[in-house]
Amino acid sequence: MPERFVEVSEYGRDGKFLLEVRRFRENVLLRGFLEALAQPIMVLDKQMRLVWANQALNAYIQGDVEEVIGKLPGEVLGCGICGQESSKCQIQGSCGLHEILAAGFAGEGRTCDILLDRTDKEALALRLKCSPIGLFASDQLFLVVEDRSLQNRRDMLERVFFHDLINSLGAIQGASQMLEESAKGDDTEMAWLLAEQAQDVLNEVRSHRDLFDAETGEFRPRKERISSLKLLKRVAATFGVHQSFGGRTILLDAKAEDLVLVTDITLLKRVLGNMVKNALEANSGAVTLNCLSAGDGAMLEVHNLGCVPEASRDRIFRRAFSTKGEGRGLGCYSMKLFGEGILGGKVWFRTDESEGTTFCIRLPVIEPKVV
Predict the structure, then answer these.
(1) Rounded CA separation 207/17 (Å)
(2) Does the global pTM surpass 0.70?
(3) What is the rounded distance in angstroms from the CA atom of residue 284 to the CA atom of residue 26?
(4) Where are the beta strands (DSSP E) in 28-136?
């Protein structure tokens, strides 16, 4: 930042304020640290005036920070209301900015999302984080600015896309089912295949929508009761007739326990389905499903005879990691995201060349065995 400095201005650069600015400028260690950060950061005094800002903020406002030293953060960011008459905000208390700044000066770091209205410009969706500076300057605080406008627009467009696509696929699925019911002779198999493909595509789109909602923290599970054996049989039946895996052997362990699960059935089926799909792709042998009680929880398992390569074991649950080529790798990632992040369980696997590979999900609570 240029070292030029204007001694007076209408923004309250009085002698005491100028002394604060000079004191901060002389703190080479703190200034160097803030300049190394990519996020736009302001340093504010107790009157909420800008004392200093890093080059990232300079680039964000597309101007010279030296020209706005002494202004309120709303003015610096281009608020269309703040500072209409003077440097005092005319709407104190109506946005979350003043609240988090007050908390910061009280020694408490806080984060809030605000919508900043700008004159003759599109509003900005900002995530602001404040934190006391501490030993360096007890009467000043950091304000970190994250512009979420573009991300929010993308999120909204993606939600609209999923909504419209699911509606269209639902109509196709319904029409294909009606065609299957009325088909005769040689058309019967083709109609059945069309209905199955429509259902598969619809399930895939719903899966990606749920993945998006889970990653953005918008997913809300719907818990229901279900028998563990009934659930495993459903999963086995789904893949038993799947076009890509038809004819493969999917078994239910003879010792599998029948427990009452209270969970989001659709989401748990998706986790188990990804485990089964992963097992079918990993090895040509039989896939075995199992359920057993584990303390106060229930453990569901999917076993295959293959072995996970040692080089892949530490990365298998990472997003977009796959040994099967580009564009893959969401299946194992979503097992963790859904199974742990949404269902509150624990997902892991064990693998051995002689024993094969078993993917497991342990759910925290079960009810008594089904009678």
Answers:
(1) 56
(2) no
(3) 69
(4) 41-44, 50-53, 110-118, 121-132
Burial level of 314, CB count in 10 A (0-12/13-18/19+)? exposed
Q: What is the DSSP letter of 112?
A: E
How much is the pLDDT for 351?
93
Helices (H) and strands (E) in the chain, counts: 10, 13
Q: Is 262 exposed, middle or buried (0-12, 13-18, 19+ CB in 10 A)?
A: middle
Using alpha carbons only, what angle is made at residue 247 by residues 245 and 253, rounded to the nearest 5 degrees?
90
What digits encode the pLDDT tens for the residues 138-172?
Answer: 578 888 998 888 887 888 878 888 888 888 888 88
Distance CA 258, CA 271 (A): 19
Amino acid at position 289, single letter: L
DSSP 256-268: ---EEEEE-HHHH
Q: Which residue has the tokens 């304020």?
A: 17
Do residues 368 and 258 touch, judged by C-beta distance below 8 A? no
DSSP E strands, 134-263:
141-147, 224-227, 250-252, 259-263
